[in-house]
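seq as requested:
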Amino acid sequence: MSPSRTPSGVGGSPSGRAPARGKRAFAATWWGQAWVAALEDSTLDSGRLSRGRTYARKGMVGEIAVAPGRIKAPVQGSRPRPYRSSVHLPVLTDSQWEALLDAIAARAGRVAALLDGELPADLVEDARGAGVPLLPKPTELDPECSCPDWGYPCKHAAALCYAIASRIDDDPFVLFALRGRTRERIFAELRTRRTADRPAAGQAPAGVPAAAAYARWAEETRSLPEPPGPAVRAPGLPVDPPLSSGLAAADLEGLTADAAARAQRVLAGDFSSLALTQRQDAVRIAASDRGLEWFHGLQQGTGLRPVEFARLTRAWRYGGATGVIVAEEPSTPDPSAPAAARTAVTGALTDMARDAVALKAWRNRLTLGGTGIQLRYGPDRRWYPYVRQDGEWWPCAPADADPVAAFAAAWEKRPASR
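struct tokens:
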């Protein structure tokens, strides 16, 4: 089911994209429209809401940062310097999170829907009944802005609320993040619940003294085990796919084998592959070296330029899904981590008699001027080494928790011309 599917009585765009104008121009799903409704019900100032819609539609909202209890972004107004706008939302308490996770785990279909980018309406209703407001109430949205406008919200904060609506449309986990927990933590806790619900294994038998165990083993006649038989291969397709499909039998067999391998990992308790976006999954398949034809087909399906897709493929090989996230999206970590890394790398450069290198820190990225090296801090608290090639930053080695080790790996992979 696509995110454009909505409950009865709630409008949506069949194409999955919102109309270009009007109040519903920023949300096509029912949960996105619920966010917009909470904003518009929080004030009677229709004039500022209208200006906010215009600002958002014109792209005057800068990069939006989502954190527990807050969204923020620079919003361009009438002055040259953008205003600092934010909207606050109460995070859920631990007991509310327990109730929400119980509601998600109560029905397997809810987990599948969330992974498919949908927010089940019955989940929201059950959570609300348990005292957990996942979707915001009008009284919960608390805007803040550096502009002199006394409106509540001002047009800049209203623009921020409208702009985030399409992002909530695409990924309902933005709502969960605003309420205090990330997608990764939610699924980790759901896995913990699943493990706890499994029946406990029977009590291990009591041990025996080592001497008695050895004596018993020596009395028995034992033979070497038979060698394992050949691996059982899944049968091929019974018939070739239709010529009009453009697919070859080998392609479908490869996809079938890939799906079987992923299913085996899921049965073993590894759900990481279920949380991949379509783009990340295409990168994952391309990174398995299925051939140039596959690479081009997957690249065209993502709509990325070949060089962009190749860079993400290399990022997957070095860091999996986290490596792709680091390659695509700058983040804003706790300032203490980049500061400590900067000190450590500066010390390493001094030891190398390279104290003239200028280090530039921006968000989660530390760039070593004149060396063609950049280190990126990931959500897994590891540093991902990059080198500059032909004007582009490329991942060059696996990540390391030690920024100096990541720097050393990048130093070895620098282009020879440097």
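The chain has 15 helices and nine strands.
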